UniProtKB/TrEMBL annotation:
This is Uncharacterized protein. It comes from Pistacia atlantica.
Amino acid sequence: MAASFSFAAQSILGSPVSRVSNRSCGASQFFPVKYVPRVGRNAGLPVRCMAEEEQKEQEQPQPMPTARKAKVSTKFSDVLAFSGPAPERINGRLAMIGFVAAMAVELAKGQDVFAQISDGGVTWFIGTSVVLSLASLIPLFKGVSVESKSEGLMTSDAELWNGRVAMLGLIALALTEYVKGGALV
């Protein structure tokens, strides 16, 4: 270990980068590398690369495009199109509320989904569907995009995925209760 330390110390202290000789008095002084200025033979001569100049000439700075909001179509056929912003969002929102309501009624009364539907659930479903559909469509017909109001954790993609999971959950709940022959809980 002592030999390796001695070798490392000699290589650091004996290198030309870290040793500056004072020729006037004939003695050598050792400085840490960060204090020794390294001066090349032609230090004052600037060197330019011609390739960089050609690239700069070819790449003229383009003006930054201004961030414009894309115009959102407010036509009825565009909003309610198969790939439009409304259908999947409305169905997802209805599924989220339906799944939570079905589970809440099942926990409170012990009724399965089919018993809930036959026990006045159809009128609640129709009323909720109309209110949520209108509440979802009015901003879209005014030209507000779905992505404009999403930031942070509450994004439009998160709403889509939550709606898809709720749709699958509602179907799984109904199938499980059908196969089981009664309420899940």
